[in-house]
Design a protein that fits this description.
Distance between the termini: 11 Å
Number of strands: 10
Strand order of the largest sheet: 1-10-9-8-7
Structural class: alpha/beta
Helix content: 25-40%
CATH superfamily: Endonuclease/exonuclease/phosphatase
CATH topology: Deoxyribonuclease I, Chain A
Order of helices and strands: EEHEHEHEEEHEEHEH
Shape: globular
CATH architecture: 4-Layer Sandwich
């Protein structure tokens, strides 16, 4: 799982990103991702108290109440304001109320919204303390992704998107993903999720030919990992 930050940073707060597959276990990848955010802090001289903390979670099903309660406890303990979930495994039969977390607004796109299937799907929880709106032009793309715009003020809007690329993704879905990221990357944004590109070496960008297009997309849009 990787996170990408693109565009210019905001004037009054930064985004701190954590990533985990099991909420209550130590996250070994957290340090690497925070270094990217710290680069933005240096530019803006943003204090640590002004960070907006983001949790990225590969849930492999969040439909059971026990797992949602575990996530809710973890979020309260660490003060996360945004929770991005991949592989929610939610279906239309499961209501927003059933998936809700106290103190958060839920945005979702189920697998069935894109094509047949019950697994996968993405969720985005945004704290009631954070002003945000859905980005309809990005959410219209037929791909497992959901996008919102955080609205602190007119100069500090940031688009946040969570994406899941299934190993069995179709060619059209992949085109839709690339189009959404390109559009989001035209401004300030945070893109997180599970992209399933195992051949990419994130330290030196080396990869097999099959994954070169994604690397080009990231580099052409000035995203940082």
């Amino acid at each position: 799982m990787k996170s990408a930050l693109g565009g210019s940073p905001g004037p009054s707060w930064a985004l701190e990103v954590g990533s985990t597959k099991t909420p209550l276990t130590q996250n070994k990848s957290n340090t690497e991702i925070k270094k990217v955010v710290h680069k933005h802090e240096t530019i803006n001289d943003v204090s640590k108290d002004s960070k907006l903390k983001v949790l990225v979670l590969n849930a492999r099903s969040i439909i059971k109440i026990e797992k949602r309660l575990e996530v809710e406890t973890y979020v309260k303990l660490h003060g996360y304001k945004i929770i991005a979930v991949t592989e929610s495994w939610a279906t239309p039969e499961i209501s927003d109320c059933e998936l809700g977390l106290e103190g958060f607004v839920l945005f979702r796109k189920d697998r069935s919204d894109v094509r047949d299937g019950k697994s996968s799907g993405v969720l985005l929880y945004v704290s009631n303390e954070v002003r945000c709106v859905q980005v309809d032009k990005l959410n219209a793309f037929k791909f497992e992704s959901i996008w919102v715009k955080l609205q602190e003020d007119l100069q500090a809007n940031v688009i946040v998107g969570v994406c899941y690329k299934s190993p069995s993704v179709s060619e059209q879905e992949l085109k839709n993903l690339f189009s959404a990221i390109k559009q989001a990357g035209s401004g300030r944004c945070l893109v997180v999720g599970d992209f399933n590109y195992p051949s990419i070496n994130w330290d030196n960008w080396e990869c097999n030919k099959e994954h070169e297009e994604f690397v080009d997309l990231i580099q052409d849009n000035f995203f940082l990992f």
